[in-house]
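Page 42, continued from yesterday. The earlier attempt failed because a stray header line got pasted into the input along with the sequence. Redoing it now with the clean sequence only.
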Amino acid sequence: SADGRFVVFDSFGPFVVEDTNGVRDVYLHDVATGMTARVSEGYAGEADGSSAFGALSADGRSVAFESSAANLVPDDANAVGDVFVAPNPFLE
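This time it went through. Structure tokens are written below.
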């Protein structure tokens, strides 16, 4: 984010306990609290495909990323990567 509080990154490493999908995920780190959250999650839980190229809005409220996962939103049946925008879980 513009103020340096939030950092977005992608990794194969499980940075949260519930990350067991074995694919690259997009994470958001809150520098002020030291907490990290996965933002590449869908309505049905863990992504079933890789996610990367995270970009954070200047105000830190939204994270955009690309994903090949088909279960991030309902009815994603086009079988190609899409761009998604997720809210910052630390500001909800």
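Notes: Residues 6-87 form one domain.
Reminder to self: strip header lines before submitting.
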